[in-house]
Amino acid sequence: MGSKPYDVIVVGARCAGAPTAMLLARKGYEVLAVDRATFPSDTISTHLVHPPGIASLDRWGLLDGVTSTGCPPIDTYAFDFGPFTISGAPGMAEAPVAYGPRRTVLDKLLVDAAAEAGVEVREAFTVEDVVTEDGRVTGVRGHGSGGRPVTERARVVIGADGRHSRVARAVRPAQYHDKPPLLAGYYTYWSGLPMNGRFETYIRPDRGFAAWPTNDDLTLVVGGWPVAEFEANKKDIEGNWLKMLDLAPEFAERVRESTREARFVGTFVENYFRRPYGAGWALVGDAGYNKDFITAQGIHDAFRDAELCATALDQALSGARAFDDAMGDYQSARDEQVLPMYELTLEFAALEPPPPDLQRLLAAVHGNQDAMDAFARMNAGVLSPAEFFAEDNVRRILAGTPEPTVDQVTGGHHS
Ligand SMILES: Cc1cc2nc3c(=O)[nH]c(=O)nc-3n(C[C@H](O)[C@H](O)[C@H](O)COP(=O)(O)OP(=O)(O)OC[C@H]3O[C@@H](n4cnc5c(N)ncnc54)[C@H](O)[C@@H]3O)c2cc1C
Predict the structure, then answer these.
(1) Residue 166 Cβ < 6 Å to ligand 1
(2) Looking at the predicted structure, is the pLDDT value of residue 58 above 90?
(3) Burial of 268 (C-beta count, 10 Å sphere; 0-12/13-18/19+)
(4) Is 385 in the pocket of ligand 1 (CB under 6 A)?
(5) Ligand 1 atom 23: the closest Cα is on which residue?
(6) How far apart are CA 207 and CA 24, in angstroms?
(7) Mind listing the pLDDT tens digit for each residue in 233-259?
(8) What secondary structure, in 3-state letters, does 332-374 show?
């Protein structure tokens, strides 16, 4: 048996788990956060953090921890469709720029902030199963690096343990809007490839690739093809990857003049929503909701879950609201905020040519700076796709009138 019952045990201590634990500890709860990893450590993920995620870090008092590492700000998103490039500013009032901090930097910052807030952080601790009593989750069973079995108990166990979540496997939540993997992506790091504050992405038939700056003067370049080509292309990842870049010859030339500093890392992911709560348990981050990484929304979505879930759990644990009411609101707020972007992400991840209507719209966006900024903000998760593609907004863009875009009307803040 472990030492004492906690209010909350959080399984997984990266983008979703560490801030959820931190926010609950800041509200005065006794929190244990465990992770089988030790920190700093890397994980399979690129790491563009759009302005909404940067705004969360700022709200939590952690943004200096990113900027002080010399990680360069990104103020321009450029979408190269071949015939034209849509280039705009992704920022919002609270966060004018994006950053691409290495996960070794970001996750360590988050886990340290949790410890600083009073969370008991246990690294190198693997959860093997959840403990249930009378159908209710009451704790976890696991072991530290020594292998000795340990049981810890809490009023609520939160699965922040990613897309292969052990907690989700145990509690079997209802799953909805599922879609099988669409895109297989590979990334690596280059030196001597300056980006000058730009995130660049190239959209080509059956291919998509992107680059942005990160720590240590390195540039991350990621690219992918349909998952149907995964087996065939994995025989020569580097060759196929470089051939893909040739679809944008100037960019390919810049990469070829640079030096690759790391091996290729790649994967593909399932797309799903899971009911994120039940008797004695909750899910945050990829454990509860996952989607293709082509739109790079996962980190700020994890941050948003942390805030929504910590707020709802505080209401439930303090007795202010019934657990199911508070957590039901967490689920509906999450789903409402992410569903339009989920659908857009799956469309992009199919890597099919945009339908004719969208092609016409994109051509009209090109060259109209307000519309290009709105397009960049939509891709950054600042402006909902539902608003960008709203009939009135589309009509205005197609008419090419100088009237304000929806984003100006609403001040660019929608999350
Ligand atoms: C290839 C790729 C590229 C991506 N690019 C981006 C991007 O550019 N921008 C972006 O915003 N998002 C991106 N994402 C998504 C992003 O990585 C995730 O959404 C984000 O990491 C989710 O955080 P999380 O805390 O939920 O899960 P994770 O980061 O997966 O963390 C889960 C943690 O749980 C721990 N854990 C798991 N099981 C156990 C267990 N049984 N016991 C103890 N600990 C356990 C793990 O060790 C891990 O540390 C990308 C994803 C992939 C796969």
Answers:
(1) yes
(2) yes
(3) middle
(4) no
(5) 15
(6) 42
(7) 999 999 999 999 999 999 999 999 999
(8) HHHHHHHHHHHHHHHHHHCCCCCCHHHHHHHHHHCCCHHHHHH
